[in-house]
Amino acid sequence: MEKVVVLGAGESGVGAAILAQQQGYDVFVSDKGQIASSYKDVLTKYEIEWEEGEHSTSRIFEANTVVKSPGIPDQITLIKELNAKGIEVISEIEFASRYTTASLVGITGSNGKTTTTALTHYILDQAGLNVGCAGNIGDSFAKSVALQDKEGYVLEVSSFQLDGITSFKPHIAVLTNITPDHLDRYDYKFENYIKAKFRIVENQTKDDYFIYDKDDKVITDYLKNNKIESTQLPFSLHEKVDEGAYLDNDTITITINNDKLIMSASALALKGNHNVKNAMAAATVAQLLKIRKATIRECLENFHGVEHRLESVLKINNVQYINDSKATNVNATYYALDAMKAPTIWIVGGVDKGNNYAELFALVNEKVKAIICLGVDNSKIVNAFGNCVDDIVETQSMKDAVNYAYKIAERNDNVLLSPACASFDLFKNYEERGRQFKEAVREL
Known about the structure:
The protein is of the alpha/beta class and 444 residues long. It folds into 3 domains: 3-92, Rossmann fold (3-Layer(aba) Sandwich); 100-302, UDP-N-acetylmuramoyl-L-alanine:D-glutamate ligase (3-Layer(aba) Sandwich), CATH 3.40.1190; 311-442, Mur ligase, C-terminal domain (Protein-Tyrosine Phosphatase, Chain A). 35% of the residues lie in helices and 23% in strands. It is built from 17 helices and 20 strands. The protein has helices at 11-22, 37-45, 57-60, 77-84, 92-97, 113-126, 141-148, 159-162, 190-198, 217-225, 273-288, 293-302, 330-339, 361-367, 379-385, 398-408, 430-442, and strands spanning 3-7, 26-31, 49-52, 65-68, 88-91, 103-108, 131-135, 152-156, 172-175, 209-213, 231-236, 244-248, 251-256, 259-264, 311-316, 319-323, 344-348, 368-374, 391-395, 414-417. The strands form 3 sheets. It has a 9-stranded mixed β-sheet, sandwiched between helices. Strands 15-16-20-17-18-19 form a 6-stranded mixed β-sheet, sandwiched between helices. α6 crosses α12 (293-302). The termini are far apart. 48% of the residues are buried. Residues 107-286 form the Mur ligase central domain.
């Protein structure tokens, strides 16, 4: 019996283990950290063998295939040893794609991919298609394939997941944008990260589609220098395109094979230019799949976004509290600050991923009246913005940060949590950070 070893027992690892067992493999799960009790319960229920707190190389090196969780870097010794032994190491999305005939929409990008994925799935689901939503959002792709395989999937895909593919091929690939992120995983070389993102199209043929942001110079420069097989459908806020999507005045026009969908940008439920782009990308997918135009328009007018992304929490004493915990890099926070229409108290900080804060200076000068740092080490933020605002304080807990914001906020101000950093110094993940913010606001 062929052996599959799964490294890492989070959402993707446990999903891969369930699928591997279902496909008749001898499965072993190994996690160097502690496995969450909820995932242990699942592994026990399926009678899948596991270990935690170590990687037993004697067992791991017996594998025919190793499925690696996205959080594990390729640079660690164990992965190098597996490569040297010629043992296949792949990601969970690669593994899952081998066991489904579903049509795939793959969405990646430094920012906007969660909103675009959720919105695309919402439109296709409302149109009555048998389509799942998985990957970096909700259930893992592998678990979905194992437990209730669908005719199609909308997948949010990270660069870490794309690093481990060989044959994974979405019929429609979407690249929302590329800005420096996760450089600590790519030898601090932006070009390595760019290549990782573009792996989403590497197995596509001329019968497949690539939807991308034509206003993003990083993407257009790459396309100038690298040939891509798939049919390209750009979207743009600034330039008219014959095929694809563009904005002119307030009108969005989407053209596929000379068939046009036209709607007003101000009718979108999601506000901000970045969301016009997310809507254009999602609507282009829907039009490619021949969804009724009335359905597409209705969905775009009704979809109010995802949790932890510019989420309005409460208004207290005429002060609006906004949860943007999902902003884990500078570019995401740029969009958030850009969308602020009132004086803003900005809660920022966490684990810095090699951030360059300079691109935020103009927006901070224009919109931010006070900065509340929330992190174990805030020195880089204090140094970056010390000259931009008079009021900059450091806090170590969400409760303290929110209480301080409440104390200094005046009528018609915004209080914005948009950290521009990862959350792992004080929180388990960005979701927990966002939930704590909302709880602290509700307790005011």
